[in-house]
Amino acid sequence: MFVSNTSHQCVWNISISCNHFHKLSICSLYIHAQIIVLHDIIIQNDKNYFYYTRKFNKSLVLDFNFTLAYESWDNVFSYDNVKLSFNNFLNTFLKIFYSGFPTKKIPYTSHAKAWLTQGIKIFCINKRNFFLNSRNSNDCKIKNYYKKYCKLLVDVIKLAKKIHCNNLIIKFL
Predict the structure, then answer these.
(1) pLDDT per position as a tens digit, 122-149
(2) Which terminus of the chain has fewer Cβ atoms in its 10 Å neighbourhood, N or C?
(3) CA dist., res. 72 & res. 62, Å (int)
């Protein structure tokens, strides 16, 4: 709790979620509550996809808290206006935050489906072609072949996911 020259009370509650290192929440209570949440920003280019991230670990968080503790907050409480005080606080806080947790540019790569092999991709392309053929045909043999192909593809995908998950479990044991 800080007390300014005009004896108004202001509580700044600054917390960093250690479970979700990519989020930072600031909550201030001064007549009314204001909440700011800073998230990582994904920036897209036409050719390259990349995002900026910040590294949070215990030593950086301790250094950040130490710097905040020894910061002079006189410029925050020099105004009677809540908006000006909050803007000064935010400017000071963000300077410390940006210097304490520098950004890192990382190319965006999606590994969401590591089980998806080249063979399964070809299998899916063929399935699509079989679907187009069976849709435009009245031949029962083509439609039955397409249904069997779909069942086989489902079994292959289940097996690929199972093998991938088993490999992950073995890798982390």
Answers:
(1) 999 999 999 998 888 888 898 999 999 9
(2) C
(3) 18
User: What local confidence, expressed as pLDDT, does residue 7 receive?
Assistant: 38
- Determine which helix (DSSP H) or strand (DSSP E) holds 44, and give its type and residue range: strand 42-44
**Alpha-carbon distances, residue 16 vs 60, 62, 98 (angstroms):** 11, 11, 14
3-class state of residue 161 by DSSP:
helix
pTM above 0.85, yes or no: no
Residue 98's identity, in one-letter code, is Y
CA distance 78 to 103: 31
Cβ of 85: how many Cβ atoms within 10 Å? Answer: 21
Do the beta carbons of residue 63 and residue 100 sit within 8 Å? yes
Residue type for position 13:
N
Of the chain, the end-to-end C-alpha distance in Å amounts to 47
